[in-house]
Amino acid sequence: MRYNDLWRELAAIYGENEAKAVCRTVLDDLFGMSLTDIVCGGVESLSSADTQVLSCAMTRLKEGEPVQYVTGKAPFAGRIFGVAPGVLIPRPETEQLCDIVAGLTAALPHPAILDIGTGSGCIACTLALDDESREVSAWDISDKALGIARDNAERLGARVNFVKQDALNAPHDTDRWDAIVSNPPYICGRERSGMHSNVLDHEPHLALFVPDDDPLLFYRAIAGYGCHALRPGGWLCFEINALYANEMETMLGDMGYRDIKTIKDIYGKNRNTICRK
């Protein structure tokens, strides 16, 4: 088994450059193998047991499974988070949401922040680790996601209060949070044709999709909760579906929120919407 053979097996799925990058990620994450190690014959020098592990990993990759699930690791905001099938893989673009929340709450001595739909816990843990004065809580309806999020928090040393809670049936809290942050499901079924098969076939649909006739389902529920659960002046911060940015701003305005703003990402795409109680 050689490195060139490995990436060529994946080239039909990923293309040459990405196939090489995927193989290097697997070799690094599973065996601590650097590019120098690879060039010097590290793959050929693997033990029979490690060769079997690599063979199993390659089989999963050839079936279209995301490399993050195969290695059990995903980078986010300078840290490595554990991931597994059943939890959404953290995306680099979501790091911007953490930066936004941090900036909006920077002047508060001990801001209380809630992350709704925490998944792997990447947002909640990042906010808690970047400033230990923050009091961070996180909700998810999935027991599997909560288990992974708790494992990440424990391994990284993040103080986060995780709670099993359905965002569509939130409690009637009053003046509890300085900021609520969420990257909820926001992809409509009709958008599936434009998605990569490794996402459709492997990532949890519970964390991805909303009904075609109600694309703002989770945003409306979370914003409704925020109307009474946010403290006066508290912030609501969403990652959004760019297709519905205008509808999002209109809905938040109709619900009484102020200082509504949609923020573009580095690619010029509408990525996050913020507003204030």
TrEMBL record:
One Pfam assignment: PrmC_N
Domain of life: Bacteria
Keywords: Methyltransferase, S-adenosyl-L-methionine, Transferase
One Gene Ontology molecular-function label: peptide chain release factor N(5)-glutamine methyltransferase activity
Alphabetized CDD domains for the sequence: AdoMet_MTases (cd02440)
InterPro entries: DNA_methylase_N6_adenine_CS, HemK-like, N5-glutamine_MTase, PrmC_N, RF_methyltr_PrmC, SAM-dependent_MTases_sf, Small_mtfrase_dom
Gene Ontology biological process terms, A to Z: methylation
Enzyme class per UniProt: transferase
E.C. designation(s): 2.1.1.297
Domain Release factor glutamine methyltransferase N-terminal: 15-72
Domain Methyltransferase small: 111-191
Catalytic reactions of this protein: L-glutaminyl-[peptide chain release factor] + S-adenosyl-L-methionine = N(5)-methyl-L-glutaminyl-[peptide chain release factor] + S-adenosyl-L-homocysteine + H(+)
Protein's UniProt keywords contain S-adenosyl-L-methionine: yes
SUPFAM superfamilies in UniProt: S-adenosyl-L-methionine-dependent methyltransferases (SSF53335)
Protein name, as recorded: peptide chain release factor N(5)-glutamine methyltransferase
Source organism (scientific name): Prevotella pectinovora
